[in-house]
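pinned: reference chain
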Amino acid sequence: MARIDRADVERIAELARLELAPDDRVTIFGAGRAWLSRPLDLWVGPQFQLWARVGDAGPIFNGPSDHHSFVSERAGRLSLGSYFPGQWGDPSGRVSTDLGAYRAIEGGLAAAVLVWGDAGPEAGLDAVAAAGDVAGLLDAGAYQKLVESEAH
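pinned: its C-alpha cells
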C-alpha cells in the first residue's frame, strides 16, 4: 500500500514500487481526502487526486472513479502521484508547481494496488467480495465499473 501525504511531497511520483509487464491487469483502490478548506468542506478525493504512470515517460492517467482497473500498455515501474494543488507540466507527469505547495494541504490518500495473475480481476474481485465487502467497496455498481474499466 502506498500512502501519499505531506511527508512524501519530495517523492510524490515514486511511491509505488511495482514493476509491470505489458498486458498486466491492475486494479487501484484509492481512499482519503486532500483538504483545501475544512471549514468550507472543500476537498478532493482519489478520482481527482490520484494519478498513475507506467514507466519513466508516461503518459499519466487517472481512473473514472476512486477505484479502477486497467491493462498495462508497456513495461515499467508503476508510479503514483498526487495532483492537487499542483499543475501537470507535461503528459509524463512532471509537476510544474513548486512542490512546497503540497505542504499546505491537509489530509492524505491511501492506495492499494493489485496486480492480477492469470485468473484476472473478475475471479479476484469475486473472491474479495465473497470474503467480505469492507465498507461497501465492491457493491454491485462499483464491482461492475471495476470489471468494465479493466476491459477498456
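why pinned: The helical segments are 46-49, 120-131, 140-151. The radius of gyration is 16 Å.
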